[in-house]
């Protein structure tokens, strides 16, 4: 199953419902407990994203999930309980395909560079403190998730293919170039 999931895997919701144990995804690797979003009752590894008119999405831009940790998750599993009649789409893309689409000079330029990924870019302290009404909660989460560096181009551990590993959600700068060139456009 792990080899099949390297690219993508979409399952019918009926299959997910048949799995009574909520921890079945652990066969793919270690499960992540998200530091901000609310968890499903009794299962910290499952987050609940309940968006509606009174609670609009807070992360509706292109991003790769959880790149602010040393070893980001290998994937994500989404199961919608309720969908709007229009919109609400989740888009998937490939860092491997993005890298392979680069010109040779661009690929050479990016190889060996490092980018800073910062939890606070998508989860500023004022925002992460709101749900719990605790002004110190956001600061604690930021301290537990300090900025760190990842290679701009990563090698997939199973396929061996090169992939771009930067995203609007968490990447703040490329550290190995001049400050002027490091800032996003």
Task: Write the SSE topology.
Elements: H1 13-18, E1 39-40, E2 43-47, H2 95-100, H3 104-110, E3 114-117, H4 119-122, H5 125-129, H6 135-144, E4 148-151, E5 153-155, E6 162-164, E7 171-174, H7 179-182
Structure explained in plain terms:
The longest helix is centred in the C-terminal third of the chain and has 10 residues, at 135-144. It is globular and about 50 Å long. The protein has helices at residues 13-18, 95-100, 104-110, 119-122, 125-129, 135-144, 179-182, and strands at residues 39-40, 43-47, 114-117, 148-151, 153-155, 162-164, 171-174. The chain has seven helices and seven strands, in the order H-E-E-H-H-E-H-H-H-E-E-E-E-H. The chain is an alpha+beta fold and 185 residues long. The relative contact order is 0.16. The protein has one domain (4-87, 94-182): 4-Layer Sandwich (Double-stranded beta-helix). Mean pLDDT is 78; it is low at 1-5. Strands 4-3-7 form a three-stranded antiparallel β-sheet. Strands 1-2 form a two-stranded antiparallel ribbon. The chain has a two-stranded antiparallel ribbon with strand order 5-6. It comes from Escherichia coli. One of its GO terms (molecular function) is taurine dioxygenase activity.
Q: How many strands?
A: 7
Q: What is the class in the CATH system?
A: Alpha Beta
N/C terminus separation:
39 Å
Strand content: 5-15%
Which architecture would the CATH scheme give at its second level?
4-Layer Sandwich
Shape: globular
CATH fold category name: Double-stranded beta-helix
**SS-based class:** alpha+beta
Low-confidence stretches: 1-5
Mean pLDDT: 78
| Cα-based radius of gyration, to the nearest Å | 18 Å
Order of helices and strands: HEEHHEHHHEEEEH
Integer count of domains: 1
Task: Count the DSSP helices.
Answer: 7
User: Helix coverage percent of residues?
Assistant: 10-25%
The spatial strand order of the largest sheet comes to 4-3-7
Query: Biggest sheet, in brief?
Result: 3 strands, antiparallel
- CATH level-four homologous superfamily name: Clavaminate synthase-like
